[in-house]
Give the backbone structure.
Amino acid sequence: MADGEMSARGRRRAAEAGIVAVAGLSAFAVAHASLLVPETARPISAPMAAVAKAAPVTAPPEDDVLIAFEEPVPGHAVVSPFGLRQLPWEGNGRLHEGVDISADAGVPVIAAADGVVVAAGTKGGYGRYVAVRHAEALTTFYAHLGGIRDGLKPGMAIKAGDTLGRIGSTGTSTGPHLHFEIRDAQDRPLNPAMFLGKAFDEAGDLPLDKAKRYSGRVRMAYVSFIPESKRALMDARNAPPVRVFKRATTDAQDEAAATRNLEGSLAREAQRQEKMDGLKGLSIGPDGRPRAQLSM
Ligand SMILES: [Zn+2]
């Protein structure tokens, strides 16, 4: 960072605005990306210098705000809130770590608050995503994007309302929507409903403890579209259970039994034959029984 670019007053103002929190982000691995911001890309200096130059001597009202959150897809509703949720292809409920905001593919997704892009790319079920670091080491996370804004990359400073990408349905998604998360400095998910549309003057005002809580009740999620990757799981859940009867014997045991049976029948046959041979030469009486043979 070129220190000369920012006056002492600018640095002080940056500190008052809580923006200094981002200076530590090079040592911070974002939850979903494990990407680090390169040392060369410390982002805040230039924009903050501009703010410092433009700002009047008396502090304007917005300087009293530590961080303010806008809706990431303005005018579109949250269709699935933060909390325990069971998807149709899942056997159990699990924590939905953010909110889902439904909107048509292509609708712009904006940064919820001022900050610095810390990750942008593609990751598994999240599909295309962007992560932004804010004051107090809070992170916002935008997933299932159809596209990421051209040129957007880690280290870039952005303002609330800047476009990050477009609504899509990438990753494991049940149709076009934004999966939006807010995480604390320890990467724990926070309930976005307690932040969106609200401004916080100082760190102590952030509802960090309250926003980590969620009810033990599991909501069943109803989806209009089953992702391709979940079809087999879904089919398995819908199909009547297949009853598998456990075999009582092994192949070797069956074979041994068959051998014993064969030996048994051979032995019985031999016995019968022996008996028949013994009867040869005997004269049979009218009652069908052999008569005692008279010795000659
Ligand atoms: Zn979601």
The pocket of zinc ion is lined by residues 80, 96, 98, 100, 179 (CB under 6 Å). Residues 251-279 form the longest helix (29 residues). The radius of gyration is 38 Å.
